[in-house]
Amino acid sequence: MGVLERLKSQIYQALTRAAQEAREEGRIACGQIPPFTLEVPREKAHGDLATNLAMLLSRAAGQPPRLIAQVLLEYFRGGNRIARVEVAGPGFINFFLDPSWLYEVLPEVEAQDESYGCSSLGQGQKVQVEFVSANPTGLLHMGNARGAALGDTLARILAAAGYDVTREFYINDAGNQIETFGHSLEARYLQLLGHDVPFPEDGYPGQDLIDNMKSLIAEVGDKYVAIDPRLRRERLVKYALKEKLARMERDLTDFGVVYDVWFSEQTLHDSGAVENVLRELQAKGYLYEDEGALWFRSALFGDEKDEVLVRGNGTPTYFAVDIAYHQNKFQRGFKRVVNVWGADHHGHVPRLKGAMRALGFDPDRLEVIIMQLVRLFKGGAPVRMSKRTGEYITLRELMEEVGRDAARYFFLLRSADSHLDFDLDLAREQSSENPVYYIQYAYARICSILRNTEAPLPRAQEAVLEALQDPAELALIRKIADLPGEILFAATSLEPHRLAHYAYELATLFHGFYTTCRVLTEDPVLRAARLVLVNACRITLRNTLGLLGVSAPERM
RNA sequence: GCGCCCGUAGCUCAGGGGAUAGAGCGCUGGCCUCCGGAGCCAGGUGCGCAGGUUCGAUUCCUGCCGGGCGCGCCA
Question: Domains in chain A: how many in total?
């Protein structure tokens, strides 16, 4: 918990006590003290913190808010950290803190260093983030790329907030699409070997499958031509799947994403987990047969209609397997299970949550982040994707085009709820127009200053930090002090884009400070204090970029 | 038709029930004796529409309009 969080919680409690005492003595006629806000106001003129408590009490008490505020202040014992209090506007109570709190921030940052910003909110609870989980029959596209940036940064944020995080990739290595995959591979394999066979109508048309089969032929030649087609497809699938997954893992690693678990769908079939969960639902009376299929009464749990779990041909649907998979997640002891899904899967959410409820799990422990689609722009026009030909821009190509840092940052800048227009030209721009370079430039500038100091960096405890009085200095410290709160908020709301904006704002304040205040001045006291400030800014910026998975270069 | 997401500045987007709604890009004009000018400063326009809840609504609710995505014994 940072300095600001501690002060906030002290004032919050003092306000609560003041309200209680005023009520007991009959000065304010209200019942329970409602939950109120205590926030940093947008306007600096409104103080360092402001509360709406008086306005909230006004209705129940039948007294005007400004009067209640005055009464509250009579009872308020906030301690010596508060320089001034005022009642303002419709009934806000504004607190002006003694500036000394700002100077406590810097030693704290320095001492905590790499863990500055972290908290123990999660108390070591196990949380899983499952993301990307791309169909292994293809390549990673823009939707997967956005999911990768989002899921990974979410995982980093949750870890920083004190959770024990597991990153998981669910491999769809069973079911219909694997059948189709097999037939597609088989056609490519035979075609490459000169056989005139048709490509399946619903097959995967991309060049990537041809490449898979070329490399297989380089290894084993035509040895699968003459064998039983079923066995042949099995072999081709096994080979191509391995190659594709290895490639995905490599691409994701280069994107800064490292998984703890690669979970195979096939294992759910092999272990009997699918059968077991069907039996369990059956025993609870949530299944019924109709038209030869086995149905789940998902409408009972808020879904639009019931869903098929086992088809007429006896094979389980994707949904049935997904129920088994999520049951498995909870059985592994995760307190929170977070999924990152594309918007085209949103209809799946209520029925999966319903299934979890049917199985006796609290559906709120399953949190699904739905992210809207990505459109690529180049030269001001959208880049067309073709599902028909299987041609689209891949994650690998994106990284080659704009680099990992810009790619991740651009994905993280927008809320998941928002459609994302990805401007390839801007992302590739290595100039001031590109926000990611703007932030990194701030970091490189800091490192440059620190390189230019011949003496060892002064410790925060030794420096006279009160020498920092310039508005630009104070604003920068204030922003540095915000990081712990920002991470807490991003972790509870599962909104990584907050930190992308925070990084930019921090960089802006640093650049402003840099222009106004010369760090390496003649005055040794001021110089030492500014070096401490700059170093704290370096730590804060580095930690924030670390959460975004964007590199912090010492030189550019 | 039903469901989910979105609608805020010319464009792309932030905005946690609060006070005078912000940023980037683009446009115009300034700032280099000195720590990296990939920087700084200044200039202006806006919450889709209509109701409701509230002391207070860009924020919550309802309806409408507009855009995206779903609604399969596909995944």
Answer: 4
